[in-house]
Amino acid sequence: MRSVAREVFLLQLVLVVLLVAAAVVALVVQARRDTMTDARHRTLAAAESFAHSWGLQEALNSDNPTAKLQPLAEAARKASGVDALIVYKLDGITLTHSDPRQIGKHVIGPYAEAARGKPFTRTFEGALGLSVVSAAPVKDPSGRVIALVAAPVTVEKVQKSVNRQLPLFLGTAVGALALAGGGAGLVSRRLRRQTHGLGPVEMTRMYEHHDAVLHAVREGVLIVGRDGRLLLVNDEARRLLDLPADAEGRRVGDLGLDRRTAELLASDRTATDEVHLAQDRLLAINKRSTSPYGAHQRSVVTLRDTTELRWLSGRAEVARERLRLLYDAGTRIGSTLNVVRTAEELAQVAVPRFADIVTVELLDPVLKGEEPAVAGTELRRAAIAGLTPDHPLYPVGELLRIVPGTPVAAGVDQARSVVEPDLAGSSAWRSQDPERARRILDHGVHSLAVVPLRARGVVLGLVDFWRSGDSPPFDDEDRSFAEELAGRAAVGIDNARRYTRERTMAMTLQRSLMPRGLPDQDALEVAHRYLPAQAGVGGDWFDVIPLPGARVALVVGDVVGHGLHAAATMGRLRIAVHNFSALDLSPDELLGHLDELVTHIDVQDEDTEEGPAITGATCLYVVYDSVSGRVTAATAGHLPPAVAHPDGRVEFLQPPVSPPLGLGTGLPFETTELSLPEGSRLVLYTDGLVENRSRDLDAGLEALRAALSGPDRTPEDTCATVMQSLLPARSTDDVALLVARARRLDPAHVAEWDVPRDPAGVGPVRNDCVRQLADWGLQDIAYGTELILSELITNAIRYGAEPIHVRLLHTRTTLISEVSDGSSTSPHIRQAKATDEDGRGLFLVAQFAEQWGTRYSPRGKTIWAAQAVGPGALPSEEESPEDLLSRWEDGGEW
Fold it and tell me: According to the UniProt entry, which residue ranges have a biased composition of type Basic and acidic residues (predicted)?
């Protein structure tokens, strides 16, 4: 793109070149013409002069005219500057010539006119070439033409004369061209500075833009000079400032503007969106200096009418603020599943951005997590925000009775929002509590909006928005926003209510299914802890189950998940473990039966669509024998128990790995055994104790090892130390912990005999047992024990197999009589017929023993019977076996 200055320069240069060329051509042509004219004149003058010279006629009439005329002709030629002076007679014979070879030759040429006595000038091709020739007649005294004189000048000579002038012409032309080019350059440079190097298109666009700024732009534009004069003003600025038609060129102070506006326009300071009053308009004025963009320091001012924009922007800002408030409410309300905390979050998020004071009242059933009634007459204040300690409103926890006809009644009974813009003039609001209403008005509160908290079509409570002091009263638009805010909060409150209800039900169910206390037994000193998860009730459980033979079973289990289903599943598994343990099964057999039960329950649940399957439950079953000190353990996907020895060493008992319950793998469960020194602590736990989001399982097990190591502690102290060391501030999973310290039964309280398989061997063993009871001070139950042993040993000899072994165990509260044999057949009580000779022995055993049963081992079975001893076991009246059997046979009640 060429600039205007460059195009003007090129145009001027072309014009100068053309003019100079034309001038040179004209000068050359004129010089040639002048030279030819001069040549005509010189040749004619030379010819006539020589024709009228003295002595010419005499020489012509002589015998040898050439000899006389040739020297004269050469002298005259040289003097006149012509190329030749040719004299010839009328017959055309040449007498003189500048070329002697032409003398005597006949001349052919247009000389007829000269022969007639008239001189002439012609240009023709002669002996010298193309020449300008003038001829003059030579007359005698009588006037008769006797000869002709011709004076030629060659055109070549004329051209050489012209060529000698060409350097002068060209030099003059070059000088003129240089002078003209320099002038054009100066003019272009000046023009370039004035047009800032712009091209024609840009100049045209600038003019169009300038015209648009002046007439089409709907924003006022002013340019003010350094002296405060108005240099440029567009139509919009004239309209906004009401300027006169001759405003341009005048000082801004003389235009009748507002004094503040005139001072700004005339000053050197800049401005950004300064609001100025111009008549009834609010103008936003921006002012900047043009000094970075021009040589002159001027200011450009833009004006924008913000009268309507200010109102619209205010409305937009209010809408934007309320949208932001709704967004904040969505993120802050309902952060916890707690009804009261959710109500507090609602009150806090609305103060002070929407209301000066906010109170929340809920129906009592909602606070308890129950389904609210269709209609209620009382509300309880759950949250307050925005009040000073001396506020006159009902405090948190206060019960508010609903008075018919008040805004509160309309909100609860009709689920309708009510706005009271002027509380001082609202008799309906004052009727709720006139004295408190007066105190509230004295506190500066003047406007109220009551909005029901409604979810799923049910009113949960009310939220009251109060404004005081200089805050504007509530209007219908505020009511719509308040309903939107209350609607979002009501969803959070209802979710918290339903969660509270489910959590309460789950915790109630779990408490009813968990052990209410530990059973009385002598084999282990037990302490426990259970901590429900913050997120809800889980499926962890533990149990301590006394077993016959001075043994105790410890159980810990975990059902994946939280809530009612997990708690109910935990209860089902715990009951099943109790039932299976009553059969005195080994740990691996018990877990096998439990796995089959869980699989069966899963199939039933899937068929009836009652809920998700319980696959994923784990269980650890441990049996401790206080006589031998041995521990037998089996696990179904549960973490291994820890053993803290009296010397401070800690190890993890690792049963063979088995899958969780209910997977249906068909793999058998296996057991592991360990002999515990007396005083060792056996620690059973669930994964919530050692594993969480911030700690992996291996790190948790090491932390448990560290907490259990060290000096010997009681089980209660061990529980406290472990819980304090391993649990985070907020547990995401429930935790069950069971710590049992091993005790050994005194060997002096254990008596054993081997019995031969001979009926005659019953008496000696029975007598030895009676003596042992006397040594233990148990003479009061010796009769019943003797009868029990007699029946059990007799049955073992008759129906069992060798080896037959008898053992008495005396604990603090129980005497246990055990008879073992090598047979796996199990006796059972039956109704003996009148003709039967046997079948009544086990009935007698059941009558004299508090409990009896059978347990199996790899080498046979053991039938045991337990009798209560000690201060708490009062002796009963003894009846003879005959009396007992007669009452049984007579159908008496037992």
Answer: 884-894
Task: Identify the residue whose tokens are 């006037």.
Answer: 143
In a domain, 111, yes or no: yes
Average pLDDT along the chain = 80
**Sign (positive/negative) of CA torsion 695, 698, 699, 705?**
positive
- Annotate 662-726 with DSSP letters as a single string: T----PPP--EEEEPPTT-EEEEE-HHHH-BTTB-HHHHHHHHHHHH-SS---HHHHHHHHHHHH
Are 571 and 493 found together in one domain? no
876 in a structural domain: yes
Among residues 715, 742, 769, the one where a domain terminates is: 742
Domain check: are 580 and 678 in the same one? yes
Query: What average pLDDT score do residues 544-555 get?
Result: 92
Q: Which long-range contacts (CB under 8 A, 24 or more apart) does 40-45 make?
A: 40/121, 40/132, 40/134, 42/80, 42/81, 42/82, 42/151, 42/153, 43/82, 43/121, 43/132, 43/133, 43/134, 43/151, 43/152, 43/153, 44/119, 44/121, 44/134, 44/136, 44/151, 45/80, 45/134
pLDDT of residue 95: 81
Q: How many CB atoms lie within 10 A of CB 389?
A: 4
Q: Of 304, 314, 311, nearest to 284 (Cα)?
A: 304
Q: Which domain holds residue 646?
A: 524-742
Once rounded to an integer, what is the mean pLDDT over residues 88-109? Answer: 77
In a domain, 668, yes or no: yes
Which token pair is 619? 């269980």
CATH code for position 696: 3.60.40.10
| Helix spans in 514-623 (H) | 564-582, 587-608
Q: What's the CA gap between 334 and 341, in Å, rounded?
A: 8
Residue type for 771, please?
R
Question: What number of other Cβ atoms are within 10 A of residue 683's Cβ?
Answer: 25
Distance CA 678, CA 643 (A): 12
CB atoms within 10 A of CB 62: 12
The amino acid at residue 590 is L
Strands 399-401 and 271-278: unpaired
**CA distances in angstroms from 627 to 621, 748, 765, 827, listed in the order given:** 19, 11, 21, 26
Q: CATH number, domain at 788? A: 3.30.565.10
Is residue 853 a contact partner of residue 548, using CB atoms and an 8 Å limit? yes
**How confident is the model over 231-289, as pLDDT tens digits?**
888 888 888 888 888 888 888 888 878 888 888 888 888 888 888 877 777 788 888 88
- Residue 491 CB contacts under 8 Å (≥ 6 apart), including other chains: 334, 455
- Number of structural domains in the chain: 5
Q: Is residue 570 left, alpha or beta, with left meaning phi > 0 and alpha meaning psi from -120 to 50?
A: alpha
Domain boundary among 708, 742, 776: 742
Assess whether 347 and 475 both reside in one domain. Answer: yes
Condensed to tens digits (0 to 9), the pLDDT of residues 385-417 reads 888 777 888 888 888 888 887 888 887 777 788
CA distance 381 to 377: 13
DSSP per-residue codes, 296-338 = S--EEEEEEE-HHHHHHHHHHHHHHHHHHHHHHHHHHTTSSS-
Q: Are 562 and 666 part of one and the same domain?
A: yes
Whether 631 and 714 share a structural domain: yes
Q: List, in sequence order, every residue forming a beta bridge with 229; answer none if it has no partner.
A: 251
449, 418 Cβ separation under 8 angstroms? yes
Confidence check: pLDDT of 200 > 80: no
Which tokens sit at 11?
A: 């145009």
Three-class secondary structure of residue 417 per DSSP: coil
**DSSP line for 458-516:** EEEEEEEEEEETTSPPP-HHHHHHHHHHHHHHHHHHHHHHHHHHHHHHHHHHHHHHS-S
CA distance 762 to 764: 6
DSSP structural state of residue 851: E
Lowest mean pLDDT among 28-37, 260-269, 857-866: 28-37
Mean pLDDT of 202-225: 72
Is residue 193, in this structure, part of any structural domain at all?
A: no
Q: What is the CATH number of the domain that holds 268?
A: 3.30.450.20
146 in the same domain as 292: no
Residues 829 and 714 in one domain: no
